[in-house]
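Aim 2 progress update. The chain analyzed this quarter is reproduced below.
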Amino acid sequence: MSKNISRFDDFKYTTRIRALNLFAQIFLGTLLFVGLNFLAARHYANFDFSKSGAHSLSPESVAYVENLKAPVEIFAVFGSKSAEDPKIRLARRDLRSLFSQYEYISGKAAPVKYSFVQAHIENSRAEELARRFGNDIEDMVIVACGQKFKKIPFTDFYAVEEGKPPKFDGERLVTSAILNVSKGDQQKIYFLKGHGEMSFKDASSTYGLSEFAAALKSRNYAVEELDLNEAKQVPQDAGLVVIAGAQAAFLPREIDELRKYLMKSNGRVLILLSLGPLGGLEDILFEWGLMSDDKLVLDTSGDYESSAGDLIARSFPKTPHPIAKYLVDIDMPVQFGSVRPVRPDMGAPLDDSLKVDPIILSGPTSWAETSYRRAGMQRYDDSVDLPGPLPLAMAASRVGGDEPGLTIPGGRRLVVYGDENFAANRWFNRLGNAKLAVNTVNWMFDENSMLNIPARQLESFSLTLSLNEIAGLGWRFMILPAVVLAMSLFVWLARRN
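Predicted structure tokens:
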């Protein structure tokens, strides 16, 4: 009898131990689950294993979104026909993935929040958005910050080239829109006219600057024309003056006004030179430690000359200038038309406040041809020509200005390119030209968000298997669970006995 009681006591003890063990497992499992979720909520990490980086934002977008000063709202509004359109269904998937990245990156003080709205179902919500943003809201993305907003049609998110798969251009469009609506007053850029300069109002396929202007407007810059002969002086609200390919000489008074503007704390001038006389601009270049020879940079080697005879510049200083650093990182050359050298003037007066740096260089086999107007084959003549490599663009900056207590980050700035063609409509979207032109303006304004965000290739994956391969996979998927089940049964029987 006592033996039976002892066995009963052992059974009760074992049962209690097993129950306690089960309770401990459940408790520890729950604690682990809660702890991991607690840590995940505060230390979320996004791992993107896609080849194109389709599920992560570029460093440019991250840098800007992390420094937002005000909350941003993003609305994706779908119309009644959205469900029937496969392209819009695709946009819905891609946009949700994109918006979630912005929401994750943004800070608590200035979050980015997004929502999807079915206009034909959520009538009250659609009416509210229509009152706020106008009636044209369906099948659109609306990016808003305070009273400012920008609309982007769904169809704009996909870049389609004939014979190539579509690319998703969402990040560039959304980041540009966020930049546009979240910034305060627009910086004004004045394009000089009256001397045969190229115009941003010219949309021709050759020498107009409409593509350049459109890129600046998308980054929240305002562009206007300026005739110094009429205005008498550079406007007080000028953030930058652009002189693009002047063909006629400047009046002495106009040169004086430009010099005065450059002496102010917000003085910034971008000069795109043509071949021929500088028309008075040489005085400004001299004061900023620069010069430009009336010579044409040539390079007949295959790596540095295009099929059209243009110059391909793919060389940069050992320490890249901030304007060109992005091009260096992605190994992107620039295509110039008729470019002249721009180099430091060794005869300029010494100035400790002045910093002069090359931006981009010609190749080692290049030279600056003096007799470029002469017909026939051009050859290097060491008695009159300049050997390469040669600077094709220079950036000069001074700290401070003549106004007491007023300075801007980086000081006053002058950038000179030896060619106006690279920013013209015909060349703007070739190679790295657009990036170089926009980066130049961004650097002059100390903008860190240089929106060089390429459209991403839409990735699709397919797995092609034969019937035998499918059968083999089927057997593997059946055998593995069976083996696990058998082992579990064996362990259970062993513990029971």
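The first helix runs from residue 2 to 42. The chain has three domains: 1-44, 59-180, 186-444. These observations will guide the mutagenesis experiments scheduled for the next reporting period.
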